[in-house]
Amino acid sequence: MGTWMPALGLALLSPVLSAHSHVDVQAGPSGQLVLVGATKETMLYVPPGEPFTLYAPRFPGGYYATELTFSSEDPLTPNALPRIQIISVSGPAGATFAFWEAGATTPTWTCATGWNASGGDYPEFITYEDASGVGHIHGRLFTATHPGTYTVAFRAIDGTASSPRAASAPYVATIEVLATPPLSIRAEGGSARLAFVSRPDLSYDLQASATLAADDWTTIGFASGTGSVIEFTDPLADRPRVFYRLVEYR
Predict the structure, then answer these.
(1) What pTM was computed for the model?
(2) Are residues 25 and 98 in the same domain?
(3) Same domain, 130 and 197
(4) Closest C-alpha among 152, 60, 48, 22 to residue 97
(5) 39 and 99 together in one domain
(6) 8, 25, 54: which is closest to 169 by C-alpha?
(7) pLDDT in tens, 47-94
């Protein structure tokens, strides 16, 4: 996406690079399963063809995305064969939410916001890597189509057939899906002057391309977000036409 200007253009895109949170299945005092981990997460936009995380190199992009790793490494829960079920999803009207199994190139399961599990329809995935029930699976992604605030409820169940532990109480994650900061651009004194309001704790690459081809983007500037305005200047003497994009990542 981009807007042509005299000799200039801009594209507002933002991949996320190799950042993810963990949620662990544990056993409570009574043996009931418990989900423990951060309850707030952030998604940034990953444009098509851009790298996202080292654990999901086949992810095609084109969504707001995050990697959320569910694990079962608590010594109190051996042989429980934990599974994670999605219970409900709320978020902006008209948006969709999905999860992608590790290695998937298309969504494994997708729902519209406002969805609630009913009639035994609980989409689920495992946390373990072998028959011991212990695991730490990277590369499972969650995506959304619109900016806004999403609330997703999960629960852990015991996948064993005999003497299963009680299911966990709902674990509710609030996911803030952030649109890319607007990038302003103007030609001044033979250069392009570009500016945007940064976000703290995020990083930014300014990239340029003459063609918008996926393999034709070059990083020409880098900045760490502070919450204030950041400016870049790019000489235009050798650029008969150019697109710019802002790459935002953790």
Answers:
(1) 0.86
(2) yes
(3) no
(4) 152
(5) yes
(6) 25
(7) 777 788 889 999 998 899 999 999 988 776 667 889 999 999 999 999
